[in-house]
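Same chain as my last thread, 263 residues:
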Amino acid sequence: MFTIKAGDLSAILDKVAPHRPADPDMDYLDMIVLDCTRRWLYAVAGGDRTIAIARTPVKGAHWIAPIAYEDASALRGWLESGDHVSVEHLLDSGRPLLRFTEGAAQITVPVACHMADLPWRALLRASTERPSADWGAVRLRAEDLALWEHAGEEVEVHAAGGASLVIRSGPNFIGLHMPCTRSRSGDPLEGWSASVRSRLFLYGGMPYEVGVVYADGRGARWRIAARPEPGQEPVAVSADHSCVALPLSVVLTVGGPLMRLPF
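reply #2:
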């Protein structure tokens, strides 16, 4: 659990909220992901051609919680009257939840484990590691530009690999926009190198990554929602609407070794 200013949490939600899928067939991405590490709380959202990531400093733990867009909107409204809010990632009756508390006021948001993966770290790495061609001018539509108007007062645009643009606004906002044609300028990941590293831990001699979906021998899918604290056993959450959480040892005993699924 950690405490954060309500305004800081609202700000990162506002920066990524415009990046909501417009296509109804992409409702599996109609979410905002809250991704917590020891130093940062990230808000991540992806649309038809964009991904936006905003962060704010915290003293937290490692967990990832996709939240349905409607629940994220309800949280944003609740924060309007807040000042300093406690944030807790917990299990309640075997289901992962996010609980936000200020004094007697409280809102609990279910973690939408059935939503698709949004592997933003891997996408950022892939887009910046591949060399980009020295293309000509970029053509963007007015609605493309409007997606980034809440990122900050000024934005920097970098060309990257994989025909993508990297959008920067200050030290705590980064995004991807595809497609594009633009030559590369500088290092678009400057200051974000630690943020895009995978959140790995070892259990039983095997590596597991926070936020990734795995399949067991029976075909059931499991998401590793959080990195265990020292001395604690990791928990796997069923990647479906039931969101059942079980100790990882139980999942391995019943279903056998887990296989990481592709993004």
